[in-house]
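Summary of Year 1 activities. Much of the first year was spent building the evaluation harness for sequence design. The harness presents a backbone, in tokenized form, and records the residue chosen at every position. We chose the following record to illustrate the format because it has been used consistently in internal testing since the harness was completed.
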């Protein structure tokens, strides 16, 4: 089935509806329907299991509101459409799902329905177009393995469209990068993988795909169900992440709709910590005073990326492993909070690897240069007194041959990370006469003596030629005269066309 074509059809239908304005609303409209259909498919699985165990399954969704009972069009003329469908969704479906009764005893697999719908909206105003959208969605069979696999690729396309605005430094992380990072962290069943800015679930689904290969027994399946946890405070990415995990066979997605920075660091207990953390925190944004007050004084920063680095250190279990994508500014930053964070990384953690990434990884949303920091919550063998890090390796990943930059049509692929993998297990310093140092090792003490400057093995930049003042002015006047001549020529042509004569000097 051409699922990609289905998504385009959905977008084309919704563009005709006066109630929807822009891609974000179209995607929200699309995804709450995807969620209900995916959830209905999951409920069929639960019903089947209950029948095999001779028990009864009861949905948290009232019977008439379940997808199977209002969305299916049997082509017999009885399917709701037009004003009747609009009234049903606006006056019954949404109010009821938003108001579902949830208690502490409610299973997570059921409570997510209320959580998902609490901040959602129904934008469409044309009930006939709405019926057309529902019918197209019903062409996808989420209980079919092929459709699920194909939908995963389309899902990523939807996310890229959603993030085209690049709001507050939040960008879609290429699947090649999430897969590579998870591969290097190598989680195993029984460990927990966390992402506290999980967005749409990219790192978590990469972890699930990695762990799926380890599932052999019923006990393995039980561990798989509990393998990932996430937190996301924006409603639409939260909805997408829940749907994404359901599509990856997680029956009760453990993703919380909350602000990860809203808890005091001193309140975290051992049960709040995880074995593996993979994150791409938002950067370039700022946070409020209330969130900053949750952090020890020396780590309080206005930049969200800094605070998330601290959060990660507080939530990583002993001997745990982390990989975090950070902008260049974190590496060379010298303000008090950044210095304190980098000191803590070297003194209390084993910061063993920093990968410098090409600037266009997140193109076309941003050209900000980024890096991956790999560190463990352990003391490295050979670390000097006062440090937990022994040596930090820097490796610069250059653009692949034949690429000037990445783009929407030429995005990063997993094989582009192969140079890192080749070097990773056989680490050597690499110098290049043309591009500078490509790989180099520094001791923690050396980095500390450089005022904790992690900006090593950087990408070469084109240097701007600085001319003597007289030559600089001469070039300026030369360019200005050429521009003035071009303007005069254009004005003369306009006068000729209009048949008028204007004395430019007198006008000036």
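For this record, the design step produced the sequence shown next.
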């Amino acid at each position: 089935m051409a699922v990609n074509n289905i998504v385009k059809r959905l977008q084309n239908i919704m563009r005709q509806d006066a109630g929807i304005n822009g891609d974000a609303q179209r995607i929200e409209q699309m995804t709450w329907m995807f969620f209900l259909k995916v959830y209905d498919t999951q409920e069929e699985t639960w019903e089947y299991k209950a029948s095999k165990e001779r028990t009864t399954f009861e949905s948290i969704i009232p019977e008439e509101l379940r997808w199977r009972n209002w969305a299916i069009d049997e082509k017999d003329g009885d399917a709701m459409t037009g004003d009747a469908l609009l009234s049903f969704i606006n006056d019954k479906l949404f109010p009821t799902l938003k108001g579902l009764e949830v208690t502490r005893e409610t299973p997570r697999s059921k409570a997510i329905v209320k959580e998902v719908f609490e901040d959602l909206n129904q934008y469409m105003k044309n009930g006939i177009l709405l019926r057309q959208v529902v019918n197209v969605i019903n062409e996808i069979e989420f209980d079919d393995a092929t459709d699920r696999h194909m939908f995963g690729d389309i899902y990523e396309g939807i996310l890229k469209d959603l993030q085209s605005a690049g709001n507050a430094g939040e960008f879609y992380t290429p699947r090649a990068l999430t897969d590579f990072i998870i591969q290097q962290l190598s989680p195993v069943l029984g460990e927990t993988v966390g992402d506290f800015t999980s967005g749409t679930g990219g790192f978590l689904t990469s972890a699930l795909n990695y762990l799926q290969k380890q599932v052999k027994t019923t006990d393995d399946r039980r561990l798989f169900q509990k393998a990932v946890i996430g937190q996301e405070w924006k409603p639409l990415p939260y909805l997408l992440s829940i749907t994404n995990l359901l599509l990856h066979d997680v029956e009760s997605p453990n993703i919380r709709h909350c602000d990860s920075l809203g808890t005091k660091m001193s309140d975290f207990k051992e049960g709040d910590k995880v074995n593996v953390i993979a994150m791409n925190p938002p950067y370039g944004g700022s946070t409020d005073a209330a969130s900053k007050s949750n952090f020890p004084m020396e780590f309080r920063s206005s930049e969200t990326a800094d605070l998330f680095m601290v959060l990660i250190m507080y939530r990583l279990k002993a001997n745990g492993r982390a990989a975090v994508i950070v902008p260049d500014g974190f590496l060379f930053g010298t303000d008090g909070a950044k210095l304190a964070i980098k000191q803590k990384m070297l003194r209390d953690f084993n910061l063993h690897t920093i990968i410098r990434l090409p600037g266009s990884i997140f193109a076309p949303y941003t050209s900000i240069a980024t890096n991956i920091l790999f560190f463990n919550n352990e003391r490295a063998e050979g670390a000097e007194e006062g440090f937990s890090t022994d040596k930090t390796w820097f490796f610069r990943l250059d653009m692949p041959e034949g690429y000037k930059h990445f783009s929407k049509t030429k995005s990063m692929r997993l094989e582009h990370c192969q140079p890192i993998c080749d070097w990773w297990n056989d680490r050597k310093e690499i110098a290049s006469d043309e591009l500078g140092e490509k790989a180099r090792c520094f001791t923690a003490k050396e980095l500390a003596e450089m005022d904790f400057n992690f900006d090593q093995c950087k990408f070469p930049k084109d240097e701007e030629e600085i001319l003597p003042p007289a030559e600089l002015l001469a070039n300026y006047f030369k360019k200005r005269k050429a521009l003035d001549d071009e303007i005069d020529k254009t004005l003369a042509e306009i006068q000729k066309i209009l048949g008028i004569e204007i004395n430019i000097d007198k006008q000036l």
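The longest strand covers residues 316-327. Quantitative recovery figures across the full test set are reported in Table 2.
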